[in-house]
Design a protein that fits this description.
With 107 residues, the protein is an alpha+beta fold. It is built from two helices and seven strands. The strands form two sheets. It has a five-stranded antiparallel β-sheet with strand order 2-3-4-5-7. The longest helix is centred in the last third of the chain and has 17 residues. The two termini are 13 Å apart.
């Protein structure tokens, strides 16, 4: 079984992955920015990353609210858990990744 957190970490570190597509858009009237990207891991698993950020944000000391989604688009015949994960800020995502890494260290 593969952990989604492990795949996400590889994407964030740019290790063992190939970017398949990326689309970025900014709506100045709505004051929002969107990004969608697809990645293929060396295992063959394809992951989609969606990110939405409202502009302008609070001060840099806070963890700005945003919408983040990681989703397995093609599992390449492998079991990936979970298949989808959502976050409402980068701090929440970072905490989840850290907690998952701690669990991997105990195994």
């Amino acid at each position: 079984m593969m952990e989604l957190a492990s795949l996400v970490r590889d994407i964030l570190r740019q290790q063992h992955v190939e970017q398949l597509a990326q689309h970025r858009e900014q709506d100045h009237e709505a004051e929002a920015e969107w990004q969608i990207a697809r990645w293929r891991h060396r295992s063959g698993v394809v992951i989609q990353h969606r990110y939405e950020l409202e502009l302008p944000q609070q001060d840099a000391a806070s963890c700005p609210e945003c919408w983040i989604e990681w989703q397995v688009i093609d599992s390449a015949g492998l079991v990936v858990q979970p298949m989808r994960k959502q976050f409402y800020n980068l701090c929440q995502q970072s905490f989840w990744l850290a907690m998952q890494a701690d669990g991997e260290d105990e195994s």
